Amino acid sequence: MIRTDPYYPFLCAGAPDGSLWTVGLEMNANLQEKPEHRESPVLRRFAPDGRQLGAWLPRSSFPGSAEVVRGFLVASNRKVGWLRWSADCGLAGVRAEITPEGEITSFPLKQVSGFKAGIGAFSGMALTTDGGALVAAVPCDKAEATAVLWLDRSKADWRRVSVPVAASPPFFHIDGADTGLELYAGGDDESRVRFYRLER
Asked: Would the pTM count as exceeding 0.85?
């Protein structure tokens, strides 16, 4: 058990080297943010024995707590990926990549098109061996199927990935890093966890 108070992690990801990456907020005993917490780092890395190995990105660099507490954090052999978004329906967000040494690359993501009513949320993220990212995007209109999207890093944009599954309309939740991509496909009587290989 690692005690981190007054820092409260909301997102956690275990890396292959045994370290734990977290995104969270410093708060008082009533779970309220105070002025003295404004410069506390939101991104932290801990050793298996609980020692803090690094801390980055002050709370003051984020306009609101929602951008910190909602999102996905995934760790692979090469890096940590943090996906966060700023608004529901239309979904413009930010993708951050962090190396074990704490080098951070962030770039804004364009709004994801292709949904009639826009996207309401993401539902999981996975990292590929070559450093790519896959996410499951949930539309605002629940009559539309959840989409699996691949990040085109050169354009900071998302592209749809064709997934062979019979559910109509399916709901996807994706997870994984490096060689294993795990995708929960729900929405019909054949709902189950399936494992996929990404082919370009």
From this structure: no
